[in-house]
Amino acid sequence: MVRGAAFAGALSLLSFALADGLAVSRPPVLEPGQAAADQKAKDKRRSGRGFWARYACWLLGQRVADCGGWPSERGVLAGDLGRSDASGRPFWPEFSQRLGHSLWLIGPALVAAALASLSLATLTLSRFHRLDRGLVLFAVVGSSVPSYGLGLLAVGIGSLLLGRWPATAEPSGSMFLPWTALTLFFFTSWIRVARVALRDADAHPAAETARGKGISGARLVIVHLWPLAFRPVLSAVSEAVPLLFAGAAVTESIFAYPGLARWLLDSIAERDVLTTANLLLVGTGLAWASYAGVRRVAHHPRLSAAPAP
Amino acid sequence: MRRRIPLVVATVVAVAVLLGQASPFRIDGDHPTAGPSWAHWLGTDAVGRDVLARLALGTLISAGVSIAATSLVLFEGLLLGGLAGASRPRLERWGATLIDLALALPRVPLMLVAAAWPSLQGWGPVGSLVRLLLVLALLGWASWARMVRDLCRELGRGPAVRTAQAWGASWLWCWRAHYLRSLRPLVRVQARSLFARMLYLETLVSFLGLGVTPPWPSLGNLAAAGMETFAENPAAVAAPVLVAALLALMANWRADPSSRPV
């Protein structure tokens, strides 16, 4: 309990300090398209308050005596994340809308990449040596291509060369190109892990015994190999959870997609300290929760009952 | 290493010749957004600067930042992982917790925000490079440190270290004679792998407009600038992406021989 509170406190301090640093020594010029009144309000909010006072205002809102005019009434501790400096919209409605967009972008790509890497890795187990060689070569080369390279490749081929899909993406429109770019990004990261895990599982005594008893190929894969390979794959995926953002940020940036990563980039560009701090806080919390969750699943006694290969 | 010296010398000479042919900052106002020609082998960018000369300088900058960041991360990982894996149990626990916390942080968003700080503005263009280097070094050490910690723990339980300790060897002596020697092959492999990762992160941050500040080129901001002239000069996008991919591929290929097709 104490550790959790200390960790949450450290996360909030880190998020606010990083975001607050964006505004330090900011030249007194207006950003393009920003109203003078908004700028004055932002400057007034900073002036005369030290870092810890601003941090207290962010945490507790206008309940602190010195925090009159702060855009959040009850503060982050009470779940009130206030309004965006740039758009003036409340944080939570915008966040939930953008989270939905980001999930719609990442979810199908994750599922497609997981299915493709697991199926192809399974295919390369006993036969298809040429496929195995090709796949490994593709994975090594593909994981060396930067994610923005994959996005640009998708735009270049799909939109400019073939002219079939638009170069921008919207949640309600065509998502083929961003999904393809992200699927390739995830696939090249995971295929090697899935391949090695399945090979280790294939050499496990349980698999060899089952094979000796005459179990069919499909049953061997489903009953023995996949469960044995599950833990290492999940462990590798859990380490990649924080890196999911990199792929999403690039894809959203290239395709001008209105997701969470794009929102963070926009708020950084606009020096919107509050939105950036809020996004970092929620993002670090979510990343920690998903990391811990996946780790817990990976070490679940029911799932880890079989001895590790 | 001796075999690689001619390659390094040839690369440096080629870059010097390219930079001598055309300055990466000289603006050719008559030929903005031009395609490849004899005068400009990879064409020009939106304001008429030679793409090849900028690519040569950008490659040097990206590779230089990545190599420096890799060195710093290797040092941090050895220090923190070593402390967490080869010291007293209480320190071990704290070290392991610190590494786990750092691993769970979404490093890329934190990196993006930190890279956008307006600090070191007085340093000119070097300021953005130093800032980027520090950000990469501060946020990239966690997984390497955990690897070092695990290996150090294993070594600490082994007979060699235990015997040395029984003979009264100091922690520092054990560290130098046993831990560091055993870690050397891992450092060699991990340096290549880390270089590929640092290069990716450097180009990613620069691509998103928060890394190396224009007019100084890096592979990332060259690719982003090339997007504006994609239709007229695709080479301006393809070349930096290809160079970044080739550099990362060379590093990955040497770092991970087990995954090569047999």
Description:
The complex is a heterodimer of chains A (309) and B (262). With 309 residues, chain A is mainly α. In chain A, 68% of the residues lie in helices and 0% in strands. Chain A starts with a helix and ends in an 11-residue tail after the last helix. The C terminus of chain A is likely disordered. By secondary structure, chain B is mostly helical. Helix content of chain B is 70%, strand content 0%. Chain B has 10 helices and no strands. The longest helix of chain B is centred in the C-terminal third of the chain and has 37 residues. The mean pLDDT of chain B is 82. The interface between A and B is large, with 55 and 50 residues.
List its traits.
heterodimer, A: 309 residues, mainly alpha, 12 helices, 68% helix, 0% strand, globular, disordered C terminus, B: 262 residues, 70% helix
The unreliable regions of chain B are: none
Major interchain interface with per-chain residue totals: A-B, 55 and 50 residues
Amount of helix of chain A: 55-70%
Overall pLDDT of chain B: 82
* Main sheet makeup of chain B: none
- Helical proportion of chain B, percent range: over 70%
Beta-strand segment tally of chain B: 0
Structural class by secondary-structure content of chain A: mainly alpha
Q: Helix/strand/pairing class of chain B, anyone?
A: mainly alpha
Q: What is the element string of chain A, with H for helices and E for strands? A: HHHHHHHHHHHH
The N- to C-terminal Cα distance of chain A equals: 35 Å
Shape of chain A: globular
Give the arrangement of secondary structure elements:
The complex is a heterodimer of chains A (309) and B (262).
Chain A: H1 2-20, H2 36-46, H3 51-60, H4 91-123, H5 129-144, H6 147-161, H7 176-202, H8 205-212, H9 217-240, H10 244-254, H11 260-269, H12 273-298
Helix pairs in contact in A: 1-12, 4-7, 5-7, 6-7, 6-10, 7-9, 7-10, 8-9, 9-12, 10-11, 11-12
Chain B: H1 5-21, H2 51-85, H3 89-104, H4 107-115, H5 125-139, H6 142-157, H7 159-166, H8 171-207, H9 219-228, H10 235-255
